[in-house]
Amino acid sequence: MCLPIRNFKSNKNSKQSSSLSSEIASISKMASIRPHAQLPAPRLVVTGHTKGGSSIFASDTVVPQFHPFGPAGSGFSNFHNSATVPVSNVLPIPDLGNVLPRCPPAGINFGISDFAPNGRSPMHRTISADYAIVLEGEIILSLDSGEKKAIRKGEFILQRGTNHEWINPSSEVTCRILFVMIGAEKIVLGDGTTLEQTVLGPKK
């Protein structure tokens, strides 16, 4: 998941806004129309420093979830995003309240995604290495080769630029996954083919 989505009001980002709208429309068609019991919005504690260098708690807040696909669709809470690594520990935390989780090409993104019962994402590839842990429920990780694996609460995922989709097999339980996404080099195959980012599915 590797597009720096910040602010869609400017002309510069009009194409990104259009792409985002198309993405939301596509995923919405896949979302269950039955409302589900959403998990509580997460609490985020952020530390910082005084001007004199003493450690402090900079904030302690509940992060509202972004539900772009309606109450029966997936929900997202983005905690932090940086366009570069090393990350600055003095710049203000960016406002990421109403954006899909996307990782800048040379940066990081940290947040959670909730998948509704019977919910699924489209097949997609991100130019990132994704470190993930299932916090609640269970998720099916499906690859474009047809292979699938179930990952359950307390289990981990290292996703390395593969074309994939997420499927919540439960009809009752919302699945919550924590993601730390790191911008990665594009994968180049032996014949020189570069595996590009896909947003709504593999190219036909």
CATH topology: Jelly Rolls
Strand content: 35-45%
CATH architecture annotation name: Sandwich
As for the number of domains, it is 1
User: What is the typical, i.e. mean, pLDDT?
Assistant: 83
Distance between the termini: 20 Å
Could you spell the SSE succession in H and E letters?
HEEEEEEEEEEEE
Strands ordered across the widest β-sheet: 3-4-10-5-8
* Relevant CATH superfamily: Jelly Rolls
Q: Radius of gyration over alpha carbons?
A: 17 Å
Region (Disordered): 1-21
Protein name: Cupin type-2 domain-containing protein
Biased composition (Low complexity): 10-21
Domain Cupin type-2: 113-180
What do you see in this structure?
Helices cover 8% and strands 36% of the residues. By secondary structure, the protein is mainly beta. It has one domain (11-36, 67-195): Jelly Rolls, CATH 2.60.120. The strands form 4 sheets. The chain has a 5-stranded antiparallel sheet with strand order 3-4-10-5-8, with no helix packed on it. Strands 7-6-9 form a 3-stranded antiparallel sheet, with no helix packed on it. Strand 1 and strand 2 (55-62) form a beta hairpin. The protein is globular, with a radius of gyration of 17 Å. The chain starts with 13 loop residues before the first helix and ends in a 9-residue tail after the last strand. Residues 10-21 have a biased composition (Low complexity). Residues 113-180 form the Cupin type-2 domain.
